[in-house]
Each structure stands twice: as C-alpha cells, then as structure tokens.
Predict the 3D structure of the following.
Amino acid sequence: MNQIKAGAALNYVIIALNTIVGLLYTPYMLRCLGQSEYGLYSLVASIIAYLTLLDFGFGNAIIRYTAKLRAERKEREQWQMFGLFMIVYIIIGIIALCLGLALYYNIDLLFGHTMAENDLINAKIMMILLTFNLAITFPLSIFGSIITAYENFVFQKVVNLIRIVLCTFVLIFVLSLGYKAVALVVVQTIFNVLTLVLNLIYCKRKIGIKIIFGKFDLLFIKEIAIYSFWIFINAIMDRIYWGTGQFVLGAISGTISVAIFSVAILLQQMYMQFSTSIASVMLPRVTVIVTQKYNDQDVSNLFIRTGRIQCLMLSFILSGFIVFGQSFIKLWAGSDYTQSYLITLIFFISLFIPLIQNIGITILQARNQLRFRSVLYLIIATISLALQIMLAPKFGALGCAISIGASLIIGQGIIMNIYYKKKQSIDIVLFWKEIYKISKIPLLYTLLGLIIIQLISLSSLPILLIGILLYSAIYIVSIWFWCMNDYERNLLYTPIHRMVNKLKF
C-alpha cells in the first residue's frame, strides 16, 4: 500500500510539474515556432499517435495478468507470458515501421493542398523520426508495464520527474538556438529511448524478471486476446475523440486551425491528468479486490470515494477556468488563440462526468468486462467523427469541439451511468447524491466570479495572477469546511502533518 500511496502522491507531483512546465514552456514554444509551425508539429504528432493503437491493449493486459499470476504465485508462467508479449511487440514494431513509412510516402497526397512545400518537407522528416521512435518503443514498453504490475511506482514516477525537467530544459535550449519543430522531435525521441532503457535495466536488476520463450497455453492466449481486444476498441475511441480533430482540420482548414485546436487539446490533457492519476495506480489493487470476490458494496464505496475526490479537484479547475480562462489564454498563448477558450471550455464541461467516474474504467478492466463500454464508445466516437467532418468546413475547430463534447455527454453522462447501475451493481444514485452535496459551493463561486470579473479588467498578468490566487484561497477554504468529509481532509492533512514533523527534526 505504501507504493500505491507514494505512487499516487508522486503522480500529483508529476501532474503539478507537467502543469507548471506546460504553462511556462508552451507560450515560449508557441512564440518560437509560430502558429503555422506549431500546427504542423501537432498535426504530425496526432497522425503518429494513431500507430500507438497497434498496442492492441496489451500493455493493460500485461499489468492485469502479471498482478493475477503474482497473486497466484505462478512465477514461471509470468516469465513465459513476458516472452510471448516480447515476440508480439517485436512484430508490432515492424508493422508500425511499415505503416509509418507508408504515411511518409503519402504526405503530399494527404495534405499537399493545404500546406506549403517547406511544411511538407518538415512534416516528412518528423514523420520518419517519430515512426522509428515508435518502432523502438513497442518492444521495450513491456518493461514499463511490468514495473506498474509489480507496484514499483516510486522508481517509475521519479524517472518521469527527472525526464520532464531535463527534457524541458533541453527543448528550451534548442528553441533558443533558433531550431524548430524537427529539432523538438529529435530531443523527445532521445529522452523516450533513454527512459525505456532505464525501465529495462530496472526490471532486470531490481525486480529480477526473466523472459522465457517457449510453449504457450492457447487458452491463456485466447483469454488475453479477448481482454485486450476491448481495451483496443477503447483506445480507438480515444484516438477518434482526441486525435481526429487535428487530422480533419489539417486536411480541410490548414495548420492554423490545427494550432488553435491543439492548444485546447493541450489544456484538455492537463485537465484529464488530475483524474487519471488515481486510477492509473489502482488497477493492480482493484484486480486483487475483484479476484478475492469482494462484494458489490465494497466496489460501490470505492467508486463513490474516488469520485468525490476527483470531483473536488476538477470542480476547482473547471470553476477557475470558466472565470479566468478567457483572459488567461489571451495572455498566455496570445491573441491569435482566443477561440481556444471556448473549445477548451467545451472539452472541460463534457469531460467532467467521465473524469469523476474514471475509476469505473479500472473496475471494468479488473472484471474483464469492458465490452459494453468499448462498443458503446466506438459507436459514439464514430458518430463524433462523422459530425466533425460535417461541421469542420463551416465552423472549423469549434465544430470539431462541439461534435466531441456532445458525444461524450451522451455516452458517459447518460448511457454509462445506466450501465454502471444496472449491470455493475454500482450505487449510482448514491454517487450523484454525494456529488450534489459537494457541487453547491463550486456552482455558487463560479457565478459570483463571472459577475465580479465583469467589473475588473484582467488585461495584465499580475492582476490576473492576483485574481486567481484570491479566488483559489477563498474557494479552497470554503471547500475544506463545507464540502470535504473527514476522510478527504485526512488525505491532505496527514502527509502535510508528517512532513512538518520531519522538518522539526
């Protein structure tokens, strides 16, 4: 449990650091690259991201079945499973390389009518670099999954912390020398490979894992394939939601629309991190709960307890962004990105329910019952894609955002809640009663904040920062006394109290 607590704590440190880095580094990068170059950079990255679907959900399968085999004390079966996945990932890496090369040779066909000749050349260079990066990543990614399955979160998170800091400094240095998007891709590739190699060394020397190539149980392979398939479908949905917009806009509107949309996507990713941080370290633990046949009430309690914590965090972020977001984006990214505020707001609101219920995905993974959610989301994501193609020519980036937001509200806000109640026996009625209790203060402060900022000009960074700090202080104090329960207060109080006691000595 210490590793879980430490992992969750370090996750929030990483989130805070990523947020700080994103807030400080991104405007510098935007101004160094320019709107068109940043749009090109985001477009190529989103295209390559589709090739990550070739993982087929095997990363999650490694985590689940390693945790399961460890609980059953089947060591040799673990080593054999690692050998199986190593072979699979090598094959996938080769396939990714071939597909990436195919995309490389068809860049002109896809984007030639919306891009200048120089942009096409840079796109090709970045495409080939990212393709080779991905081909290497697949075989080595198994070791990161093993570390997660063994609940060795501290090493993993510390490496990520160091990577974030060092990589950011190198990127800033490269930009200061006048290099553009291609150089950024080179730097990120180097750091990615170094991280993968460190995971390999740690697995071999500290965990002591072995990889055995031998006979495979066909029934076991079938079980893994079924489990991974539904995660794979879920991954397709995620890519359609968050990766298709850039592609559609790149083909229809050009790199400037992609840049505006990508700034909103960047903020959306920061927003999502605050929810997924807890769920990311809970899969091994939830798997144990399910394996040991805990009752439905235990699962419901976990769902509600985690949802309340996530709601407290995300309500604070959402409320603050509604009040200060427009001024923030104008000062942070520049006046060219003012439309990004409305797009980001659509993402934040539509993601609120999925994110406060994020632990539900982890529960479904542990129960190996992802089928319904995966099929549902695939259907809704496909509808979202169709709407993006229809709306993008007339409404641009805003049309893509509306398509995504509407499908999320229908899928997670309505249908999945019915499913959790009817099929997973989760007490959804009690969940929403608890959410209602802690939502009054955020709603009230959002309305008051919107009224007050109409009377105050937030045209300078110092005034904006003072406003955010005052709002945050009043908001947090109110939440502490009127929304949080004893369990939630202790989550914050206990580590702070321990830290203070240590500092005394």
